[in-house]
Amino acid sequence: MSFHVIVGAGAVGSTLATELADSGHEVRLVTRSGSGPAHPHIRLIRADAADRSALLPHVTGAAALYNCANPPTYALWERSWPPLAASMLSVAESTGAVLVTMSNLYGYGPVEGPISRDHPLTPSDHKGMLRARMWQDALAAHEAGRVRVTEARASDFIGPGVGPNGGLITRYGLAAVAGKPVYMFGDPDAPHSWTYMPDVARTLAVLGTDERAWGRPWHVPTAPPVSARAVVEQAVQLAGARAPRVRRVRRGMLRPFYPFSALLRELDGVLYQFKQPWEIDSTATSDDLGLYPTPWDITLESTVDHWRHAHYQQGSGQKSKTS
């Protein structure tokens, strides 16, 4: 019987592992710490996936290998991603497992109008260049007939399992439901796509098992864009909290802090996504694979429940499980 191997137990890896396990698949979840969700069909494995020899025995015989890892800070991307991506590509080639990579929209660079999967990769900063190069290397191996690969691309994550480090909207939402001022980067009223975490997992599960998906990137089905201000306003209404006090943080206000904050310096390279309308076009995924986004009202209700629970845990002094 085939099984699936996932590298990374963050929001994406854990949600995918549960999705596959609940569907009856056997799952091996690989992390350096051996962490992950408890489930009778999920086996937690402690190994360094960037070490090919350490990863290979756990993938031999697998139907698919999912790259759901993510270095904890932007500053580690250039050092951590290349060996990890190379190891997983090599292991997939050796074992015959389909390589499914979770990615984002950085590789497209600044784009006006909806972004389809066929839009050229024209990244404008090193993070986007790195993500584009990872896909191009994998695709070249696929086209050479050495391995089967595919990639899922999503906009900013929203929903259960997404912690404060998983995206700006979660930081905004946690502040709003707590009744605190919300400091927003870019234009708070620019329409923006938010990709629901359960939709991410559903899409990845299909990409690993449907041969129609292989050799192409796919955009995770995502609801129509909503501005960051509108998201937090709708959220506090559902949560029964007071109207959020939104403060816009302009780029010029951040520059003096760049010498002291690697995070702010790296954030500067992708702020274009929040200064203008930013919309992901996922119609090809719906038309070709029959996957559709969760309705926005359900997405928002689930997200607000997650934010309220996280706020309760923080207020009671407990460590949030979403961090």
Automatic annotation (TrEMBL):
Domain NAD-dependent epimerase/dehydratase, residue spans: 6-207
Superkingdom of source: Bacteria
Protein name: NAD-dependent epimerase/dehydratase family protein
Organism, scientific name: Phytoactinopolyspora mesophila
